[in-house]
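User: Predict Cytochrome P450's structure from this.
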Amino acid sequence: MDTADQLQPVRLDPVGADQHAENERLRANGPATLVELPGGVVVWAITHHDTLQELLADPRVGKDAKHWNLYREGRLPEGWPLMTFITVPGMTTSDGADHRRLRGLVSQALTPRRIAELAPAIEQRVARLLDGVAGLEGDFDLRTHFAYPLPMQVIGELLGLAEEQQGLLHELSNTLVSSSATPGAGAAAARNLAGLLAQVAAAKRAEPANDLTTALIAAREEQDRLSEAELIGILMQLVVAGHETTLNLICNAVRALLANPDQLALVLDGTVSWSAVVEETLRYDGPVGQFPMRYALEDIQVGDVLIRRGEAMLASYAAAGRDDRHYEDPNRFDLTRENNRHLALGHGPHFCIGSSLARLEAETALRELFARHPGLRLADDADPRPIASFVSNSVSTLLVRTS
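Assistant:
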């Protein structure tokens, strides 16, 4: 049985230039492949669907960086671009009772009833954005003018963020999810984002409002259940996850539909639902590529390798979505696929807490976009280059035209 010190790691492309081709090579190496991240950091990538599903719910796997030997021993490079992912206090970096406490506080504001109540407001926002798109001449970037502002405005309203703050929050968020940022850029973005959110929290303390930020502050100050660091960490995670993934999901769905006109015809004539579009996109081209980081709490055998206690793992969501051991013809975008259950939104205790909201936003956006523009197509000179990150899985621009 092979261990990390007996294997030569595969260098993961920090800019994610062709994630699906890279994932195919990783899957061929087995369910767990040793990979090298920026800065020479070596971890395991879990790329097979069934193995990833098992490990996401395995009590022998943790999310707190104190379990990672490299972090605990101070052996990570200074300015490492992914450091914020593993150190920001909150739901994505906690285990057990702490995780249940933090998740419980946030879930009080994201109940199914609350999400359903947001539907009319989301439809109105989509309509306004499409009105704006109608005023654009020629080719336009769907990502900038439609896919980005919708989830940013929705999470901004939930958290009570001023509209003028949202552009900077998005810019800082982009840097945080980049695996190709220059040394120190991620840490600087994290500091700036934390500082901005601390100002938001201070404003809500002075003037409480009917939003999630105020509710979290109340949980901290009245129930003494939330530390200041946890408050800022949760707000940071909600800002980043609350719009980046939905933005990528909308773009990836539009790309897949325009590249597969036979599938687009099925949804436009009502043969399949917009929900089917969202679920198949999540499987086929999910918004997250490689998500850091999980840690072995004890030695874990995975296939022919042994992941030792204290070693780290990437959740390779995009790779699992095209695993031919689990899906038939996985590289085909097929809206009639019977087995399209996926892991794109996680699994187990850390399943995406905002999954219902993301699905609602994406379904509404796609339905209304193609209702107004059934002839939407890629621009003639469209060059949909990927986001320079193996964490995000989407394109940096999506040039389209409506006629």
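The chain has a mean pLDDT of 93.
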